[in-house]
Write a structure and sequence with these properties.
Largest sheet: 9 strands, antiparallel
Number of domains: 2
Number of strands: 29
Strand content: 35-45%
Length: 478
């Protein structure tokens, strides 16, 4: 039996990729984080205006002709938002008979295995003398077209979707008259050779719950913080108006400008879509924005305490074959250039497949930068089976803690205390390392499959590593 997805998101989950989901794996040979400031996947800033061109990604709320119908998102500076700011909008009706915002989200990819879960949420507050209800819903997600309605007279939410569409829904009292309404739905049998549109609506209803009525030109509902995300309902994360966050999917993106087919999406009926690496060609790289999703500000000494995790299915190959790992400094790279610097941050497996490694270039509290190769205890052979590998790096303690499938497999003390990882202005790499530094050889190329992977900006303790394994193993183990 395939268990339901559990939510792994917290405020500390600052980077998360899941190539099995079209919301994360879109556009050929590209994967996108669904965490950090990129976690708010509903393009359209918090004030519901977005004039920044989003060619090839999605459409702005005010795209001429269809995005806004019978309503206007009017600024409401006198209204305090759930987070204490003043960025909410009054979704104000005109005198026509339909009143809605419509948003088309273009994704690419495929789901041939278990259904994927996505969740939509929105903060709502009763408008001035409006006596209105509100509903949010998605279409083009057959066979599951979800829809919920919120009634301000009773502060309750109702399921109006197709039978079985809403696998979870509710209304959370956010204080100050605000409620966060949400639902989760499934997407399955998703195949898109080009692109596919998931259509989302925010729509006003009259006091009886009817979507078709003649508006009075002034009534409405206050709205704030739309979030359309992969997985279960998570914390709301505001996506600001700066240019880095205008495009929900393009700001946390690994990409490939090469022509070789590595990695390729590899799909099975149960394991879903993973990233397949052949240990010969390079992998995926990112813009600096990906580095910035977990770095501690603009400092060159960052990140500090952090944890890294990835599900891998290693396919060991003989040394010296093609782009096989180096004999003198072996390793299969999962993530590299952590902190944005070409000669630091290599997380993966040693060549024999019997140790987890994390080579990190840290800036010591006393002394300069130094590279240290942390390794775990000897672990069982990982070849040709799915495993979750993870580490937590204690900056001040100079210690790396290793876990395999949620179980501790040793720690390694470098002998120093660090200010943090010595960073630079580059991005991350996945599946290979381009560094020519002798401590980070160019032949650190992954062989096999990589799936759910990411970063927390904290040290996960033993129980949290175990919980992470239990929350994500549904796809890889019964």
């Amino acid at each position: 039996m395939i268990v339901n997805r559990k939510n792994i998101d917290t405020d500390e989950l600052v980077f998360w990729i899941d190539p099995d989901n079209p919301l994360s794996y879109i556009k050929s040979e590209a994967i996108n984080s669904v965490a950090g400031l990129g976690k708010n996947l509903f393009t359209g800033t918090t004030d519901f205006y977005n004039t920044y061109p989003e060619v090839g990604t999605s459409y702005a709320w005010n795209r001429p002709g269809f995005s806004i119908l019978g309503v206007s998102p009017v600024a409401a500076p006198a209204i305090t938002d759930p987070d204490g700011s003043t960025n909410s909008r009054l979704l104000q009706e005109d005198t026509s008979n339909v009143h809605q915002l419509r948003f088309d989200l273009t994704v690419e990819g495929e789901i041939l295995g278990p259904p994927e879960t996505v969740t939509y949420s929105l903060f709502v507050k009763d408008g001035p003398s409006s006596n209105r209800q509100i509903r949010i819903f998605n279409t083009n997600t057959d066979p599951y077209n979800a829809i919920i309605k919120f009634d301000f007279a009773t502060n309750t939410v109702s399921d109006l979707g197709d039978p079985g569409s809403n696998i979870g829904y509710g209304a959370i009292d956010a204080g100050g008259g605000w409620y966060r309404i949400w639902y989760s739905l499934k997407i399955e049998n998703f195949i898109s050779a080009g692109s596919y549109t998931i259509r989302t609506f925010i729509e006003l209803l009259d006091a009886s719950g009817n979507p078709t009525y003649t508006g009075d030109g002034s009534s409405g509902v206050y709205i704030y913080g739309p979030q359309f995300e992969e997985g279960a309902l998570s914390n709301y994360v505001e996506k600001g108006d700066s240019i880095d966050y205008k495009n929900a999917f393009q700001n946390r993106k690994f990409y490939s400008s090469k022509t070789d087919p590595n990695p390729t999406p590899y799909t099975t009926s149960f394991e879903g879509t993973s990233l397949r690496f052949n240990a010969i060609d390079s992998g995926l790289a990112s813009s600096p924005n990906v580095r910035l999703s977990f770095r501690d500000g603009a400092s060159a000494v960052s990140p500090r305490d952090h944890s890294i995790f990835a599900w891998i299915k290693l396919n060991k190959i003989a040394s010296g074959v093609g782009g096989a790992p180096s004999i003198t400094l072996p390793g299969y790279a999962v993530f590299s250039r952590i902190g944005g610097r070409t000669n630091n941050g290599l997380f993966g497996i040693v060549e024999d497949g019997n140790k987890i490694m994390y080579k990190v270039r840290g800036r010591r509290t006393i002394g300069g930068d130094i590279t240290y190769n942390h390794t775990s205890n000897i672990i069982p052979d990982l070849n040709n089976d799915w495993h979750l590998i993870s580490v937590s790096w204690d900056s001040a303690g100079g210690t790396c803690y290793f876990y395999l499938d949620g179980n501790p497999v040793g720690s390694d003390f470098s002998g120093w205390s660090y200010l943090g990882v010595s960073g630079s202005g580059g991005g991350l790499e996945i599946g290979y390392s381009t560094s020519t530094d002798p401590n980070f050889p160019i032949y650190n190329k992954f062989s096999g499959l990589i799936n759910t992977a990411g970063f927390y900006n904290k040290i996960l303790n033993a129980s949290e590593h175990e919980a992470l394994y239990n929350a994500t193993k549904y796809r890889f183990h019964n």
